[in-house]
Write a structure and sequence with these properties.
Strand order of the largest sheet: 3-2-1-4-5
Order of helices and strands: HEEEHEHEHHHHH
Largest sheet: 5 strands, mixed
Structural class: alpha/beta
Helix content: 40-55%
Strand content: 5-15%
């Protein structure tokens, strides 16, 4: 293990956003930066860019913030390419920043993630199971429908107060349809979890969907990937 660690000479930190990836490569005393699109073509360009800089991608340690939005897709893609994707945990990263005399808001920067990757050598990230990914997608869809229902409820009250009876009646029907969709999603989520016992509690359940959490997960089951 020590021998393998000593052989590592290149490290990458990646900052993610909805549309773009900012990658910083530390290699041979150089700091190189590349901005790419956050899509399949961008992931391939990243691999090509690394190879053009004489950096083997197999086993290359790449550090990301997997708790940030839009980070899981590139993490999966890079892991499939053979890179050793690492998750910079917020608590450990905060300790590192304080030790370096850096402000906490620097934790999202690609150059900080690359340096953290080199100094701390975080453990390999294990991609979540397909069943867990599907559960999170179900929950996000449920959240989106509930958001629409809340907006429509506000409009419903406005129509009632304005005496707009036709609009009020139409919107009541639409809200009833949304309520039916919400019940269908909740039932599907419960069935999915029961088909896949032992799934971790997704972060989307935090403070929400108590019926799902109560009947689907153990009370002492912590969140995680």
């Amino acid at each position: 293990m020590e021998h393998a660690i000593k052989q590592e000479s290149a490290f990458v930190g990646i900052e993610t956003s909805k549309l773009l990836l900012k990658a910083v490569l530390l290699s041979g005393g150089e700091v190189l930066c590349k901005v790419l699109e956050n899509d399949v073509a961008g992931y391939r360009w990243l691999r090509s860019w690394l190879q053009r800089n004489d950096v083997p991608v197999m086993g290359l340690r790449v550090c990301m913030r997997l708790d940030m939005p839009y980070s899981e897709a590139p993490a999966r893609a890079l892991a499939d390419m053979g890179m050793l994707v690492c998750d910079a945990q917020p608590a450990q990263l905060t300790d590192y920043l304080r030790g370096q005399g850096l402000p906490d808001d620097a934790a999202h920067g690609a150059v900080v993630l690359a340096n953290y990757c080199e100094h701390k050598r975080p453990a390999r990230w294990t991609p979540p199971s397909p069943a867990y990914v599907e559960l999170r997608l179900w929950l996000r869809r449920l959240h989106a429908i509930e958001g629409v229902r809340k907006q429509e409820s506000v409009r419903l009250n406005a129509h009632l107060q304005a005496g707009q009876q036709a609009l009020y009646a139409l919107l009541r029907q639409q809200i009833a349809c949304l309520d039916a969709q919400i019940r269908q999603h909740e039932t599907a989520i419960l069935e999915h979890v029961r088909r896949h016992p032992g799934l971790p509690r997704p972060p989307e359940l935090a403070g929400n969907y108590q019926r799902i959490a109560r009947y689907s997960f153990g009370a002492n089951l912590a969140g995680g990937q």
